[in-house]
Specification:
Blueprint: E1 6-7, E2 11-15, E3 24-28, H1 35-46, E4 50-57, E5 65-67, E6 70-72, E7 75-80, E8 85-90, H2 99-112, E9 117-125, E10 133-137, H3 140-146, E11 151-152, H4 160-172, E12 176-183, H5 190-204, H6 211-215, H7 217-235
Helix pairs in contact: 1-5, 2-4
Length: 248
């Protein structure tokens, strides 16, 4: 195990040594429109980030993810030394009951690799069909950085694991921003993920191409919907039947 590995019996994080100095940590967990993990996977692919390890928990559904015939862990960690970025991407939703445990473990691990700041990517349901990104931050300084690039999320709540991570960042005084891609439905929305990536390109001087997300939006929507349904069916396995003795 590396010095920065984490294991508290509920959550286990095992990675190769992270070489980036004071990296930016970007996380993308599934939520509304699957914006977080679609955007994160696109960034990983475009920046050719290196697989470093995974997060596992006894609270996760019993599932392995296939990609081009190879088995993958459902929650993975990648690194780009060139861009000084560490990425956490998940293909499974995190049950709200265990969100606190997962976010606490992730932030403990982030402290161990001396993360400079954290970016949380998620979706937000809106009635408008306008493609925009809402933003929030844990500090006034971080809010200043994003105010000209997003629409500030003035009042409301950030739910799920993304909200838990942001709250944990606030408590620990870790600079963090939340980027919420507007989407109109629960269905996978690559177009919402693309506009979030556009904001990240501006904030961190990246050049992540989003054209393929737009071109393959329909295919991605179908594939991500199928994965979401597989996870849901795994989590809702029926209880074993009880056999009762016969009398008569």
């Amino acid at each position: 195990m590396a010095d920065t590995d984490y294991d508290d019996k509920n959550v286990k994080i095992i990675t190769k040594p992270i070489r980036s100095k004071n990296p930016i940590l970007i996380e993308g967990f599934p939520g509304i429109g699957l914006v977080g993990n679609i955007a994160s996977q696109q960034i990983i692919d475009e920046l050719k980030m290196n697989y470093m390890g995974s997060i596992d928990s006894r609270h996760f559904p019993p599932i392995a993810v296939l990609y081009e015939g190879l088995i993958n862990m459902p929650v993975r960690i990648y690194e780009s030394e060139e861009h000084n970025i560490v990425m956490v991407v998940s293909d499974i939703p995190i049950n709200p009951v265990v969100s606190y445990d997962i976010s606490r473990a992730l932030l403990d691990w982030a402290r161990g690799i001396n993360v400079k700041e954290i970016v949380s990517i998620a979706g937000i349901a809106t009635m408008s069909d306008e493609r925009k990104v809402f933003g929030a931050a844990t500090t006034h300084e971080m809010l200043e950085r994003i105010k000209d690039k997003v629409e500030i999320f003035q009042m409301g709540t950030i739910s799920g694991i993304s909200g838990s991570i942001m709250a944990e960042c606030l408590v620990r005084e870790i600079p963090a921003i939340s980027l919420l891609g507007a989407t109109q439905s629960q269905n996978p929305d690559p177009r919402a993920a693309a506009v979030v990536i556009d904001v990240l390109n501006l904030l961190y001087n990246l050049s992540v191409n989003t054209a393929s997300l737009i071109e393959q939006a329909e295919k991605i929507e179908i594939e991500m919907q199928r994965l979401a349904e597989d996870v849901k069916s795994t989590e809702q396995q029926p209880a074993p039947r009880k056999e009762f003795p016969m009398y008569g």
